[in-house]
Amino acid sequence: MGSGMGGSYSGTGGGSQPYAPSYSVEPQMHKIDVDRGIYHDGQYDKNPTAEKLTDLINGNYIKNKQYNPGDVPYAIDMDGNIIIGNRNGNGRDGLPTPHPTLIGGKDPKVKMAGMVTIRGGKIISWDNQSGHYKPNIKSMPVANEAFGKLPTSIFKKKKGGH
Length: 162
Known about the structure:
There is one protein chain. This protein is α+β, with helices and mostly antiparallel strands. The protein has one domain. It is built from two helices and ten strands; from the N terminus they run E-H-E-E-E-E-E-E-E-E-E-H. The strands form three sheets. The protein has a six-stranded mixed sheet with strand order 1-10-9-7-8-4, covered by helices on one side. It has a two-stranded antiparallel sheet with strand order 2-3. The protein has a two-stranded antiparallel sheet with strand order 5-6. The N terminus is likely disordered.
């Protein structure tokens, strides 16, 4: 099975938020999103490519053996679902589709967010790298638990019996 990756947050804008059971978009990032038009009419657009990871499982693969997106944003919603979507899911008028757009709405709270690496239809790893939510490293067990509920067949197996 794949494993989570730890470490301090190194994405957009520096350090993580204080540890919490849920995270909202950082105020500075929210202001940028308003200025860019990603947040408008009182809410975030929804990334048109956002899907529950469980809905993408096809036998022993995520989608298929050729599915090779590399690093993909994920968010764990308040119900524990892992939502993934293309980094730029071709949002409204070609606007970027950052982590909050995986959930969409007025205040898209998450239990955790970061990047998941998928190659050859298999999960390689995941982390806490989200510039919008900046989840604390202490929230990695939330991600580990959510990914741990997925079938082991969709994870890249390590060679050498590890």
